[in-house]
Amino acid sequence: MTRDEQITHMKKLVEKLNQFRDEYYNQNAPSIPDSGYDRLFDELAAWEKRTGIILSNSPTQTVGYTPVSELKKVKHPIPLLSLDKTKQVRDIADFVRKGKGPVNLMLKMDGLTVELDYDGGQLIEGSTRCDGEIGEDITHNVPTFINVPLTIPYTGKLTVTGEAHIRIDDFEKLRSSIVDKDGKPYKTPRNLASGSTRALDPAVCKGRHVSFIPFNVLEGFDEDPAIADSKSAKLSKLAEFGFGTCDAYVIDSTTTEEEIESLIECLQTIAKNCGIPIDGIVAVYDSISFSKNCGRTGHHYKDGIAFKFEDETYETVLTDIEWTPTRSGEIAPVALFDTVEIDGCDVSRASLHNLTFIKDLELRPGCRILVSKRNMIIPHVEDNLDRGAQEYSYPGTCPSCGEPTRIYTRTGDKGRIIETLHCDNPDCETQWLRQLIHFAGKKAMDIKDLSTATLAKFLEYGWLNSFQDIYHLDLHKEDIICLEGFGVKSYENLWAAIEASRHTTFERYLVAMDIPLVGRTVSRCLGREFHGSLDDFEQAAVGTYDFTQLEDIGTTINNNIHAWFSDAENLELWKELQKEMTFESRTEETTMTEQNKDNPFTGCTIVATGKLMNFTRDGIQMKILSLGAKAGSSVSKNTDYLICGEKAGSKLAKAQALGVRVLSEQEFLSMIGEVS
Fold it and tell me: Beta-strand (E) ranges in 448-514?
């Protein structure tokens, strides 16, 4: 009998004997005589002695378990960090190409990461990952796990990391009879696995079918040159000791994106058929020496990347809903909740969008909620676990000015009715402060030394009743110098920044006016159409010009422009504020260099998405314009190229669906002769 066959036979013996013990002790209905049980028990004990392997939950070891009074802290000599994450198969392919040697494509099990330490052939400690540096001692519960050997025929030090989890079919059987500490049913196998693994009394963990599957060997087997530098070979060695195995495929730089996508689907099918809860797929370099050279951040190792199927949710408690007036008058709701750690970051607040969103989820302070970071970036409230409570009462007065609030109703996508809360007081101080912040911001007038705190202070002293007042703050020079945190030098820096902002562009000035939905992209479009002439644009805006004939401008923006200019106060602001400014003449689009005539992007529409290594968002837009191309804001059938950086989102998927040519940043730089 081979070693694998021996292990399989021992596991079957353990399973049968535990079944017979349950029938005898718990059901009072034994299906086998005592002599038969004793014969199988003795056979298992003989195999354990012969192989040197004793499996967890073996009846030879489980006469009783000792509970603990608390979970002691355990320091991890090798930090158990996370992995960087993506939702794009392309990122997996890029990761493989950047590396050296084969890559293991493995299941990302959805449970609790656990470290097991062996010495002299004995399990000496089990611990949870926690923050990666300090974990919790769960040694007392490990003997109740499935697929963990308590003794092994290896006398050196061995450190194994893996996932403690509960299979989906077992979870479905257990969920109706087990509740959490608050008396609520467990919502996911992951939550039940976590609660069971960290229980103080092993009797709680026993019977919950917590399985362990290793995914890495941190220490051990280095004396064998055949496997010393291979993660997959070390994991295969673990199987000889009775550990479970993690399904995986080996890929390399010749594997295409389509093949990777197909393998991911195969792994999903395997997990489904086996009932293993997963939330993604992991790709890790197989070479241990190469992995060590990849380095790490404070959050994750760089030798692997996780492909996530969906945003992970975390349970917390909604403590309050904060309402803040925006510069448009809408009062925006923000959820405040008990802090949770998501992808290495503490998260304690998230936008609630509008009244309709709050009503749909039946949110109110005190309820348990599920939160996520959508696309691993934006905190979001996903669900309310305590629906059916008393309806939440929104503020009847503005939290800033105290004036009555009013509900506005509009029609959203697919005819859905959206309710938003508004303050109609044009003199609301918070609204005015946010308008000033926008006006002075980087995308608008770019007054670098005029911070939010400084604007708030000047507003408090009554020095800013209009945008024009910013350009006459020299009237308050002596008062400003005397303010706490200011002085002569600070004032001089501020005034220099204000004076510098007087020399501006058509685009910045238009953005500063804060016409709804008219941002940088639309402003550039209008600047090109009207050749940077504020007068020509004004005549079109107060007239009947149809802006929808321009690319990037639809009916809503067209109506917003005309509505804004039909307001007498806005028109006066538009005219009077220009007297404080000088405007750059436009040359970049009337004179095209020979380089632009020859480059492959002239006349094309290019969209950039994701995080780029060599450009800021403004920088890539300016580079596209300098090539004689159009910088688009969204992907459409008219898009010629999509420049794709890290963590690209829906734009990449849409480009692929439309057949738009996708360029990496390096490919883009190569095509314009600027390889970094």
Answer: 503-504
H or E element in which residue 285 lies? strand 278-285
Tokens found for residue 138: 């769960």
Going by C-alpha positions, the residue among 10, 44, 40 that lies closest to residue 32 is 40
Does the annotation mark 108 as catalytic?
yes
Whole-number Cα distances in Å, 580 to 37, 469, 583 = 96, 10, 10
pLDDT in tens, 230-285: 999 999 999 999 898 999 999 999 999 899 999 999 999 999 999 999 989 999 99
pLDDT bin (cut points 50, 70, 90) of residue 425 is confident
Rounded to whole angstroms, how far apart are CA atoms 631 and 654? 17
Q: Taking 50 as the threshold, does the pLDDT of residue 357 lie above it?
A: yes
Q: Is 420 left (phi over 0), alpha (psi -120 to 50) or beta?
A: beta
From the candidates 85, 87, 108, 651, which is the catalytic residue? 108
Asked if 643 and 609 count as a contact pair (C-beta separation under 8 A), the reply is: yes
The token pair at 122 is: 């004995």
Q: Does 16 or 589 have the greater pLDDT score?
A: 16
Which two tokens mark 45?
A: 């004990």
Packing angle, helices 520-529 and 617-626, rounded to 10: 20
Quote the distance between the C-alpha of residue 293 and its chain's center. 26
Would you state the pLDDT for residue 18?
Answer: 81
Q: What angle do CA 68, 72, 76 make, to 5 degrees?
A: 140
Between CA 279 and CA 124 the distance in angstroms is: 30
Tokens at 442, concatenated: 């980087």
Judge contact between 287 and 229, C-beta under 8 A: yes
Q: Which pTM does this prediction carry?
A: 0.53
Are β-strands 368-374 and 314-325 bridged in parallel, bridged antiparallel, or unpaired?
Answer: antiparallel
CA distance 171 to 497: 63
Q: What is the DSSP string of 49-97?
A: HHHS-EETT-TTT-S-----SS--EEE-SS---EEEEES-HHHHHHHHH
Q: Residue 83: what are its φ and ψ, rounded to 5°?
A: -125, 155
pLDDT at 186: 80
- Residues 6 or more apart whose CB falls under 8 angstroms from that of 671 comprise 599, 600, 601, 663
Q: Looking at this protein, which amino acid is placed at residue 548?
A: T
For the chain, what is the largest distance between any 2 Cα atoms, rounded to a whole number of angstroms? 103
